[in-house]
Amino acid sequence: MSQPIEDHDLGFQHDLPRLIGRRRALSLLGGVGLAAAGGLPAQAARCFALPWETEGPFPADGSNGRGGRALNLLPRAGVVRDDLRSSFGPMMPVADGVALELELTLVNADGCTPLEDHAIYLWHCDAAGRYSLYDLPDANYLRGVGVTDSDGEVGVTTIVPGCYAGRWPHIHFEIFESADAAVAGARSLLTSQIALPEMAAAEVYRTGGPYGDALRNLRRVGIPRDTVFRDNTPQQLAQQTLSMSGDPEDGYTGTLTIPVDLNADRHSAAGPRPGEASGALPPPTRLKR
């Protein structure tokens, strides 16, 4: 059912000039319609801070590496961009898959006020469930940083992520006080994951093509068995589930408001800061990433 779709050497500085109501519950269970949070101004909704989640083993933010070498994409010129589908810098591969226009709004959980000029680093697997720079050393697609406007909004074009064995389809992100903070290795204000709604994901995966076994993997996992989302309350799950509208042929729009607890103790977060390598990447696990 179709709905309308409402100089890599110059360094990072070269790149710089959105509760669980009925509609949100439907989105969580697989609806492809406008969520309550997506259709209201940020100030009109009560904000619940998104829970912290693991960054997984493939962040490429300097906190780990591959083959004994740290991987940190954040300082590279070109990382601030609004289309994540292609690789950048010296890398050429382009990600195949159904287009997804992300429309995210970052707000302060205390008062739902917009977070202007904040940076969000996004990364996720490709249609086949592979992560660039780790599973695919010669690609850096489906990774990038966006910076919010005065309304706390940021738009990014990507693809609908695939679904690999053991994990619900998801998008990783880290939020920083600014783009400068992201590149400088500051601790994130929030590290978490966005869940995809079941119905929209299944609709995409039925098209086959680059999505391969994604539909079978989706049917096997379920939110209650997901190694990350299963510990969250229904309210938390609703808050972190993307609202999607569109179809596989024309692509989708995904909206989400992300409330951030600016008073959270970031120093208690597990693992090193971005930019502080913790050594070689351990053997990949397909259960929690």
From TrEMBL:
A GO molecular function held by the record: oxidoreductase activity, acting on single donors with incorporation of molecular oxygen, incorporation of two atoms of oxygen
Region (Disordered): 241-289
Keyword Transferase: no
Segments forming domain Intradiol ring-cleavage dioxygenases: 97-166
Pfam families linked to this entry: Dioxygenase_C (PF00775)
UniProt superkingdom: Bacteria
Keyword tags: Dioxygenase, Oxidoreductase
InterPro entries noted in UniProt: Intradiol_dOase_C, Intradiol_dOase_core, TAT_signal
Keyword Oxidoreductase found: yes
Protein name listed in UniProt: Dioxygenase
Species for this entry: Thalassobaculum litoreum DSM 18839
